[in-house]
Automatic annotation (TrEMBL):
Organism: Collichthys lucidus
Listed EC numbers: 1.8.3.2
TM region(s), chain numbering: 783-800
Subcellular location as annotated: Secreted
Cellular compartments per GO CC: extracellular space; Golgi membrane
Similarity-based family: Belongs to the quiescin-sulfhydryl oxidase (QSOX) family.
Stated name of the protein: Sulfhydryl oxidase
Membrane as UniProt keyword: yes
Length: 814
């Protein structure tokens, strides 16, 4: 990931370079271009494919001295065979994702201008070429080319194993692949402190044993060895009659057969990874969640893991509409279109309680009536909170996660709810929408929502990549249900083992064989295959509205009562704040700075302005007194107007799951790399020698990772403000500088409300700067704008100079 991250940043520079070429035509364009690089992907692979994208900058660090063997594809994006091969290579990457510490995949587009030299340096003459670079390859190694390699995943996997077995030096993370013997097994538990020893009995020509060994290389407390059918001692001792078959072997010669539906690689790997005591290496030990946690924390709500809960869906709506959207003070353009679609799909298909449906309908009709190009969030918020007090209309405040509870506050929750919500919506659309409706209706709404608002930006980019790649294929509501299911599984595959994974809810290819054994089957070549005829009815039933459980839901009457109280408190608060404001303005006539900034936002109408000012008061008076981290299952104290007023912004500040995820995700492979230091494999001496290098490499990666911004300047600025993860998401990088600026100002204001006491002195300084009329952000923005405008000027100057020269040249021609 760190490597990919490096590549992503360099893509950013590449793209700004291509932008430079366009300068003469659109000088102003340059400015946008510099700030928001276009998301277009060159080449056949994207960073979502779990394939290292090679380029002249990273090639050395990836291929030379790597602790893992690397298989690299040299392709040309124009070559038809390469295009045809790319889906196979991508599936291969997903298929052997768990092998990464031992063998990783890379690809390079030799048709790209900047790579041409590099490809000729590797003596590439035809495309696609696959090359194997063994671990610790020299910088000048050209790799070994695979001659006439197979064009299917299984064949490629076998060829990779062949090379792995014959390579020297051995990658330190690669477990032994050779067959074991009775003698070795006898002494195994004396020298190894491992809970499970899995023996896969197979014919010599079978690769399953080696594949499963590699599939489990990132897991602790389990060791897998293959036993050949010719190993008579063991075969007779365990009474093995079927090949392949898998046995668990324990000290003192006890053994049991591993129970699986089908004797095939996928089923073995899945079952072994879920054995008791088996954990991903490098992960903290499992915390047992079934015991209730502290009273200060949210109480754990027991739930059935194979059910959908309405409490999660309502929490998701609350979080998405009241927290995620709140980051956008003004919603316009594509974002507004996305919002309208999202609400309209919810109104049509959300299987909610009557009060919630009434609320969704009122939001929907309000949005449909907004003919202007933009809306303010404050105005939307009034509808969400039912300020007009329509009867039986409410969206419960706060979140109560049930099926989406995480074992820690930063795990699961909202993104889990988001997936669940959209699975439910696609299923509802299939079962209720009349013929002739757009089969992609729900998926497009999801795609737009994710693109415009979903706070986890890397997630949004990956999701957009998937949507761009294959959403066109959806041609029925059934295929929409299946599309979302299979893309969700792709995400599960990609992030399995990442730090954002809850150890108690490991990412699996879902549904598991336990949940739906009929969903899993194998092809003729014994490769795992989903039985879609079974998966579809399973999904239809699992996410059907009639099976959604209503446990832990707040009573409707309670919800409505709370809403009434909240509105009353708000009115009262407004009045009080207006009075307070009046007295303050009387005392301090020179207080206009804050108001000015607010005015500069958008003209939010007089009412909203007072609201904003009140929030100011509330924020000053009672910072952070409200619910923390979205833990609102406890009845919220509504009475205090100050708290009520600070709430909107407070929420925006507390976005736990996303913050956690964004910060952690890039480290996913670093964990993997560290982990193999702990493993006890083949040549110990070699491992010792290697470990220093591994560490060196890991360190190097951590440093590499630091610059971090995959998403360009927007995020860098954000990080500068120390608010990573709060990045309000704008419709696909189409922000203009002015809006960015306003957002930053607003954020600076928000930041000001919630500084902790330790930072009070800092705030004091900020205030003093403010009183002169400039904030630090103002100043740095000035500098940025100044730089941008001078670049624009240079660009225009060059453009006109060029034109003049051309004209002169023409004129001087006879
Ligand atoms: C659009 C989107 C993109 C994301 N992209 C990323 C990303 O790039 N990187 C990242 O780190 N995180 C990403 N996330 C977050 C990540 O997918 C998980 O949501 C999060 O890690 C919480 O995981 P979870 O264990 O709660 O299970 P989730 O994956 O959130 O799944 C929730 C529940 O849905 C069910 N489920 C699981 N798989 C399927 C399936 N295939 N079909 C139907 N139901 C299923 C299970 O019951 C599961 O508990 C993304 C989330 C969303 C909504
Ligand atoms: C690879 O390792 C060798 C010896 O360990 C060292 O001399 C060389 O500089 C390393 N190369 C790279 C690219 O790190
Ligand atoms: C491995 O298994 C042993 C024995 O059950 C257990 O004590 C240990 O905690 C397990 N290791 C991990 C990392 O869970
Ligand atoms: C309760 O919380 C405190 C502090 O957060 C912690 O030290 C303690 O171990 C927790 N107790 C339990 C039973 O989780
Ligand atoms: C959970 O739900 C499944 C499916 O409805 C059911 O078969 C199972 O018994 C439930 N488990 C518990 C513990 O209630």
């Amino acid at each position: 990931m760190a490597r990919r991250l490096g590549r992503a940043t360099s893509r950013f520079t590449e793209e700004t370079q291509t932008c430079h070429k366009r300068i003469p035509a659109f000088a102003v364009w340059l400015c946008f271009c510099l700030v928001f690089p276009p998301a277009a992907e060159a080449g056949l692979y994207s960073p979502s494919d779990q394939i290292i994208l090679l380029n002249p900058e990273n090639v050395e660090s990836v291929l030379a001295n790597s602790t893992a063997a690397i298989v690299a594809e040299f392709y040309a994006s124009w070559c038809g065979h390469c295009v045809a091969f790319s889906p196979v290579y991508k599936s291969l990457a997903r298929d052997i994702k768990e092998w990464k510490p031992a063998v990783d995949l890379a690809a390079i587009d030799c048709a790209a201008q900047q790579n041409i030299k590099l490809c000729s340096a590797y003596s590439i003459t035809g495309y696609p070429t696959l090359k194997f670079f063994h671990a610790y390859s020299k910088a000048d190694s050209k790799g070994e080319a695979y001659k006439a390699f197979p064009r299917d995943v299984q064949g490629l996997r076998h060829r990779i194993i062949d090379k792995l077995e014959n390579q020297e030096p051995w990658p330190p993370a690669c477990p032994p692949l050779e067959p074991t013997s009775q003698a070795e097994i006898d002494s195994f538990f004396e020298t190894n402190n491992v809970q499970h020893l899995a023996l896969i009995f197979e014919k010599a020509s079978s690769y399953i044993g080696r594949e499963v060994t590699l599939d489990l290389l990132q897991f602790e407390n389990v060791t897998v060895r293959r036993v050949l059918s010719t190993e008579q001692d063991l075969v007779t001792k365990l009474g093995v009659t079927e090949f392949p078959s898998c046995y668990l072997y324990y000290p003192k010669g006890n053994f049991t057969r591993l129970k699986v539906n089908i004797e095939a690689r996928h089923f073995y790997s899945y079952a072994l990874q879920r054995l008791p005591g088996v954990v991903r290496s490098g992960r903290p030990p499992l915390v047992h969640i079934d015991h209730p946690t502290n009273s200060t924390e949210e109480p754990w709500r027991p739930f059935n893991r194979s059910r959908v809960y309405m409490a999660d869906l309502e929490s998701t709506l609350h979080y998405s509409l009241r927290v995620e959207l709140a980051a956008h003070s003004v919603i316009r353009g594509n974002a507004l279109v996305s919002l309208k679609k999202y609400i309209s799909v919810l109104t049509k298909y959300f299987p909610g309680r009557p009060v919630v449906m009434n609320l969704l309908r009122s939001v929907d009709s309000w949005l449909q009536n907004q003919s202007g190009g933009e809306i303010t969030y404050e105005a939307l918020r009034k509808i969400l909170d039912n300020s007009a007090q329509s009867p039986d209309t409410a969206l419960p405040e706060g979140v109560r996660w049930v099926g989406c509870q995480g074992s820690q506050p930063h795990l699961r929750r909202f993104p889990c709810g988001m997936w669940t919500l959209f699975h439910v919506l696609t299923v509802q659309a299939k079962s209720t929408s009349p013929r002739g409706t757009d089969p992609k209706e729900v998926l497009s709404a999801m795609r737009n929502y994710v693109r415009s608002f979903f706070g986890c930006r890397p997630c949004a980019e990956h999701f957009e990549n998937m949507a761009r790649e294959s959403m066109v294929e959806v041609d029925s509501t059934s295929s929409a249900v299946l599309w979302l299911w299979s893309r969700h599984n792709r995400v599960n595959n990609r992030i399995a083992g990442a730090l954002s994974e809850d150890p108690n809810f490991p990412k699996i290819q879902w549904p598991s064989p336990e949940m739906c054994s009929a969903c899993h089957t194998v092809r003729d070549n014994r490769e795992h295959k989903w039985n879609k005829e079974q998966v579809l009815p399973f999904l239809m039933s699992y996410f059907s509205s009639s099976r959604i459980l209503t446990d832990y839901l707040e009573d409707e009457s309670q919800v409505l009562a709370k809403q009434r109280e909240a509105i009353a408190a708000q009115k009262h608060g407004e009045r009080r704040a207006r009075e307070a404001l009046d007295s303050v303005t009387h005392l301090l006539p020179s207080q206009p700075t804050v108001q000015e900034e607010e005015e500069e936002e958008e003209d939010e109408g007089t009412q909203d302005e007072t609201m904003a000012d009140e929030e100011e008061e509330g924020g000053e008076g009672a910072p952070a007194a409200d619910e923390m981290g979205g833990k609102t299952s406890e009845p919220t104290p509504w009475a205090k107007p100050e708290m009520e007023l600070g709430r909107g912004r407070q929420r925006a500040h507390n976005r736990p799951s996303i913050v956690g995820m964004r910060m952690r995700e890039p480290q996913e492979d670093i964990v993997d790399l560290d982990s193999f230091v702990n493993q006890h494999y083949k040549a110990k001496a070699l491992r010792l020698a290697a470990s220093s290098r591994v560490k060196q490499r890991t360190l190097q990666r951590k440093v590499e990772q630091e610059p971090g911004p995959v998403f360009g300047l927007g995020m860098e600025m954000d990080a500068g403000l120390g608010m990573v993860g709060l990045q309000p998401v704008e419709a696909d990088f189409d922000l203009d500088v002015g809006r960015q600026r306003k957002r930053l100002q607003k954020r600076e204001l928000i930041g000001q409300y919630y500084v902790e006491e330790a930072e009070l002195s800092h705030r004091g300084r900020w205030m003093s700067v403010l009183s002169i009329g400039f904030s630090k952000v103002d100043i740095s923005l000035c500098v940025i704008l100044y730089c941008l405008s001078s670049m624009c000027l240079v660009a225009m100057y060059l453009f006109f100079k060029n034109r003049l020269r051309l004209r002169r040249a023409k004129v001087s021609l006879p």
